[in-house]
Amino acid sequence: MVKKRKKTNFENKKTIKNEYYSFIKYKNLNEIENVYNYDKFLLEKTENLHKIRKNYMNNLNNLTIKKRIILLDWLMEISFQLHFKRETYYLAITLIDIYFSILNESPKLNEIQLIGLACLLISNKIDNVSIPSIKVFAYSCEFCYTNQEIINCHDKILKTLKWNINYPTLNEWGNFITSKWDSISEKNSQKNVYIPKFRNDVNFNNKLLFEFFLLLDLITLDYYYIFMNEKDICVSLIYFIIGIYFQYFTKEDIINNFENVNNVCKLNKYKNWFISLCEMEFDIQRNKLNKYLIYTSQFFHLNLENKENNFLNIQNQFYNKNNINTIEKIYNLRPNNGFL
């Protein structure tokens, strides 16, 4: 008789990891509903593992907000050209911010791009089965760094992070919250109430999801987003996107009320319905949402490049050429917050 092997601690951790990513595997909306509370708990629990030190750039002389924006925009373009998954890019920028937050000394000016490239390599190893060779990464930066320099930086980052490299990202929250919204829409469709869905909607196909993620991409370039609640950012974007397609307001209304977005938020019928829904379904406090509505409204200055063929391949990272100009405009509009 063969004895059953006792499950090791490593296997227990592996099971937890699989459960943590369970919401990605569920395609049926009823299944998503069943695992929502458990997955939400796991996301929030692991999210607390990477508290990035506030204003960490104050200690890094060679790194500024503008240089971070240029670095991330470049990584987004590389991810788009090499057909990386969205999560690959988002995990890479999470690792970049955590690594810079831990550093005791400022990186050299010529190392900033190298660190970004090495974090993208690490992220690829987690999210992809087939990983490009080191030569591909060296080619992407026009051979500014040798293969060995990329490998050495890769190893240094892993040691500094103590191999803690698997964190929840803004992209995961985006997928999670929009899937939850689609399950809400599915419920209401049975009651003959139409609520637009982000995936496979009869009227919009995947257009809403495409716009949602283009806005989310722009938000990642903003240094200040990393100190905010990612779930509330996603819910606030949904508020505006769904509100536009309900025709309660337009994109121009949001942009024109940039400094006083409360004028848009005072639409009682829609706002009361939406916030009540959030309290029941997303566990969001009523007085907390206004802060995030004001924050996310800034990013609607982005000129969305809506191309029909892009809607079908939303799991891959996209690159919008208007990102840099838009983020510069936002920083210039912010009071006492210049584009550094």
What's the rounded overall pLDDT mean? 77
Biggest sheet features? none
Class from secondary-structure proportions: mainly alpha
Radius of gyration, CA atoms, in whole angstroms: 21 Å
Number of H- or I-type helical stretches: 16
Strand content: under 5%
Task: Count structural domains.
Answer: 2
Helix-strand pattern: HHHHHHHHHHHHHHHH
Straight-line distance between termini = 70 Å
Q: What global shape is seen?
A: globular
Share of helix, binned? 55-70%
- Quaternary structure type: single chain
Runs in which pLDDT lies below 50 for 5 or more consecutive residues are: 1-38
Count of distinct strands? 0
Question: What are the defining features of this structure?
Answer:
340 residues, 2 domains, mainly alpha, Cyclin A, domain 1
Describe the structure.
By secondary structure, the chain is mainly α. It has helices spanning 9-20, 22-25, 29-47, 65-81, 86-102, 112-127, 134-140, 147-160, 170-189, 207-220, 230-245, 251-256, 262-265, 268-281, 286-297, 323-333. The protein is globular. The N and C termini lie far apart (70 Å).
Summarize, please:
The chain has 340 residues and is mainly α. The protein has helices spanning 9-20, 22-25, 29-47, 65-81, 86-102, 112-127, 134-140, 147-160, 170-189, 207-220, 230-245, 251-256, 262-265, 268-281, 286-297, 323-333.
